Amino acid sequence: MSDFPLYSKYCRKKILLRSDPEDIETRLDELLDILKNNHFDVFLPVMSENSLLALAKRKNDFEKYTRITLSSFDQLSLLNNKASVSSLLAELGLPRPKTYFVESDLILDSIKKDAVFPLVIKAFRGEGATGIKVITNPEDLVRCYHDINKNYGPAMIQEFIHGTKHTAVFLLNKNSEVRRFFVHQAIREYPISGGPTCFLKSVKYDPIFEDGLKLLKRVHFTGLASMEFIVDEKDGRPKIIDVNPRFYGPLQCAVAAGADLPFAFYNLAMQGDIETDLSYKTEVTCRHLLFEDTKHLMSVLKGTKSPKYTIGKMATVLNYLNFFRDDSYFVLSLSDPYPAFKKLIHHFA
After folding, report:
1. 74, 78, 97, 252: which has the fewest Cβ within 10 Å?
2. Which of 30, 52, 68 is the last residue of a domain?
3. Sheet-wide strand order for 119-123
4. Same-domain pairing of 111 and 215
5. 140-157 burial by CB neighbour count: b if 16+ within 10 A, else e?
6. What is the CATH number of the domain that holds 344?
7. Would you say residue 237 lies in a domain?
8. Burial 73-109 (b: 16+ CB within 10 A, else e)
9. Tens digits of residue pLDDT in 110-155
10. Is 271 exposed, middle or buried (0-12, 13-18, 19+ CB in 10 A)?
11. 225 lies in a domain?
């Protein structure tokens, strides 16, 4: 994990973990020892998917020394698995992409012959764009499916939804009641074939509220969850394509728009519950300039193609250079510049 957040002026005390990041159990033991020997009001679990699942198993141990708002292991496991999310959406009658579960090569051959391309292959588990590939050519389907299955584990195939990607963020109390809700619209992503958003803006989009809440209530979720959906160009309906039951990357957009989710999360843990406040400003932009939006630009200039991004090279350059449109950044901040300097030094070292 990068250490550049430690250089923020808001970071008053630094404790560096010495254990191997890949040894999750030992790392949790080390975190637990730190909590025993220090007083922390709240533990905000900003972690990878696997670490968060391991933490959920030991939630009771951590609650002896601090406050933590976290769903159970079973709840997180359901939402971290794309196959189980797809099944839950079908059970609840919520809009989702057409989904194929592959049990044999015969099913793959049938999909290859009958499905409408492009298609998306998704590993059941994975963060960001890991284990995801857009297939535009039927001849590539079988090979790419087996590659993902081999490298990332079991996978499914979904129709490619043409439309604008949004992300809805819910903060729920212990009774799965909404306390904060925020939506941003993706303007650019990297990789351009489909991945984390690198330029976005805050928007209002109420139709996803009831659908998203219905899914989270189904698993009795507590805490912060982001939910990706695409407004389908064919029927105008929002189709839920992914759920991430943890803190997410472009958090600064919500903060800049007036929805301070980390502070609300802190107060929820401290007080047990907070008042509902669904207000925030719209049209507030946020850019991941270091370095994903720059990678997006370079990818387009190199001629990378994607059905998700059809804007030409010149328009992409002009959009990239339009810094007057930027309201906030993922890392860059004039009032707190040192994390960005550290990230630049680390990148070019």
Report:
1. 74
2. 68
3. 99-101, 155-159, 119-123, 132-135
4. no
5. bbbebbeebbeebeebbb
6. 3.30.470.20
7. yes
8. bebbbbbbbbbebbebbeeeebbbbebbebeeeeebe
9. 999 999 999 999 999 988 778 999 999 999 999 999 999 999 999 9
10. exposed
11. yes
